[in-house]
C-alpha cells in the first residue's frame, strides 16, 4: 500500500530550518505523527513528498517556504492586550507562544516587546521564510474510515477524539 489521498499515514520525522539541530522531531516524543492525507493536515510540500511512498521507506526532503509556512511578511505584527495571553507574566522577547485568534483557532506567535499592559507579537509562523529539511520514515499506512474522511482528520487508535 502506498501513500495517497484518504490514507492514514504514520511517520517519524525530524525537521531542521537550515541549522544542524532539528527544530522538531517525532522520535523525541516516541510516537510517530499520524495524518489523513489529502485534507490539508500538514504543510503542502511535505504531503506531496509523502505521496507514493510505502511502509519502511526512509527519505529526506527539502520544502521551500511557499510549500511550508510561507514567506515572512515584514508588516505582520500586532499589539495585543496581555489579558489574551495565558502566560503573559512569563513572556520575554524572542519567546514563542500560542494566541487564540478571533477566528477561534490557535496561532503561533513570537513575542517582540512586552509592555505594562500590551505585548507586541510577530504573527509570522516561527518557521516562515525558511526552507525546511525533513528526514522521514513511514511506519504505517491504512485506509481511512468514512468517519475520518468526513471529519477531514485521522482519529486515534481508540476512535474519535476532538480536543
UniProtKB/TrEMBL annotation:
SUPFAM superfamilies: FKBP-like (SSF54534). GO terms for molecular function: isomerase activity. Its EC number is 5.2.1.8. The keyword Chaperone applies. Residues 6-81 form the PPIase FKBP-type domain. The keyword Glycoprotein does not apply. It is found in: Cytoplasm. PROSITE patterns: FKBP_PPIASE. Keywords: Chaperone, Cytoplasm, Isomerase, Rotamase. Pfam families: FKBP_C (PF00254). Its main location: cytoplasm. Also involved in hydrogenase metallocenter assembly, probably by participating in the nickel insertion step. This function in hydrogenase biosynthesis requires chaperone activity and the presence of the metal-binding domain, but not PPIase activity. Belongs to the FKBP-type PPIase family. This is Peptidyl-prolyl cis-trans isomerase. It comes from Dokdonella soli. The lineage of its organism: Bacteria, Pseudomonadati, Pseudomonadota, Gammaproteobacteria, Lysobacterales.
